[in-house]
């Protein structure tokens, strides 16, 4: 089955870009393709680092993580039988991350104090929102340059969604990240995004600034319910 | 007045030094639709675990159909008609979706049913939920959304009197939320009492006759959806600006 059709997106260093789309339109598949988990049938994924362009297609997920690209998968995908701390250490797998381990760990506990309080709790016993914080923190532990976040607001109380968006924005600024975030929660996501894309049936149907997105018919149809 | 179907009376639950529930009271009447909301970590799932028997409270009582079930095993409670969904579904990945449903179906029928009858019933439930096409797949091939629908199907297979839904709408698109709501209203009309834990406001406000709110393991509000929406404390700790 063809899931993505001639998709082209780009992100410049330091941007927060959102990928909007309802379920089944290919958001997660696009993220997995960038991460090397799903191979594309055609096309290129170019990562430019220090003036050098590298095609990521054909590279293994671990190689891509080693280059500084990390994803926060939909549904968190933590190790439920391991503690909070163990999950975080597992995020610091790549060499550069191991060098920064202590610094990253204390940064995670600063952004999400709850995780510091619960270091020894099993990840699987944490509440949904706590698991989402842990999934984000685990990604930060890998010292990423680019963070791909798949639907972070799922399962969060309304007040926590806006807090989480603020945390993502802060992390982005403090750690000089470039962020691609998929979302269905249009109004919260656009609060922190610089611009975005709308994906429908595997095709990019619209690209634009937040203002342009808000005025777009597709957005109105899919997100604002008008 | 008839007695409540379920009553949670002054329930306490600690994890180590941490108090997850500090004297919670909840009741639901037969045929009612109760919403249960509260910030992440406020103790909603812990309370469901106490109701379904996965956890035993340190103090307090759980009364179902007038009987004290506080010490009853989870499978006896399931057989008594209490079914719940899990926030993170744990299907048997080596079995197909239909086979996964046959387990609770055979259990609910006390193993007096034949496998073909159970399978037919399983497919009926999948059709009701709108995922009949997935019956012969293994759960590992399912998307998050389909996994959630399968979890709902699994809980229905236990033939519940009381169905407790732990964030089944999470991650669903607007139209999918509507689909599930329609199914839930139908189930409720058939007589199933439903407790809905949900952060998708449109769903919980539209569905519930009454809403109960927890915060840090305590009841902080109860009322109609309108009353809850306009409650300043709920706004402060849960809804945000
Ligand atoms: N592993 C897979 N095998 C086959 N089809 C898949 C697989 N993963 C996703 N799909 C299909 O690809 C489409 C896009 O899915 P997905 O990328 O998960 O969308 P989204 O993240 O936008 O909800 C859907 O129709 C889905 O059923
Ligand atoms: N087995 C456990 N061990 C330690 N803490 C737990 C355990 N289960 C739940 N908790 C904690 O209890 C609190 C309430 O959790 P939960 O009932 O899952 O909240 P929610 O209202 O989000 O469903 C959370 O802080 C959670 O981390
Ligand atoms: Mg997805
Ligand atoms: Mg919960």
* CATH C-level label of the largest domain in chain B: Alpha Beta
Outline the low-pLDDT stretches of chain B: none
Average pLDDT figure of chain A:
89
Ranges of chain A where pLDDT stays below 50 over 5 or more residues in a row are: none
User: Rough shape of chain A?
Assistant: globular
**Distance between the amino and carboxyl termini of chain B:** 39 Å
CATH-defined superfamily of the largest domain in chain B? P-loop containing nucleotide triphosphate hydrolases
Number of strands of chain A: 8
**Overall body shape of chain B:** globular
Ligands bound to this protein structure:
adenosine-5'-diphosphate, magnesium ion
Integer average pLDDT of chain B: 92
Q: List the total number of helices of chain B.
A: 9
Distance between the termini of chain A: 31 Å
Structural class of the helices, strands and pairings of chain A?
alpha/beta
Would you write up a description of this structure?
The complex is a heterodimer of chains A (226) and B (241). Chain A is α/β, with parallel strands linked by helices and 226 residues long. Chain A contains 11 helices and 8 strands. In chain A, strand 7 and strand 8 form a beta hairpin. In chain A, helix 8 packs parallel to helix 9. The mean pLDDT of chain A is 89. Chain B has 241 residues and is α/β, with parallel strands linked by helices. Chain B folds into 2 domains: 163 residues, Rossmann fold; 70 residues, no CATH class. Helix content of chain B is 39%, strand content 24%. In chain B, strands 6-7-8-3-9-10 form a 6-stranded mixed beta sheet, sandwiched between helices. In chain B, a hairpin with a 2-residue loop joins strand 9 and strand 10. In chain B, helix 3 packs across helix 4, helix 3 packs parallel to helix 5 and helix 4 crosses helix 5. The longest helix of chain B has 16 residues. Chain B is globular, with a radius of gyration of 18 Å. The model of chain B has no long low-confidence stretch (mean pLDDT 92). Classes of the chains: A alpha/beta (226), B alpha/beta (241). At the A-B interface, helix 7 and helix 8 of A face helix 6 and helix 9 of B. The structure holds adenosine-5'-diphosphate (ADP) (2 copies) and magnesium ion (MG) (2 copies). The site of one adenosine-5'-diphosphate has 10 residues of chain A, from helix 1.
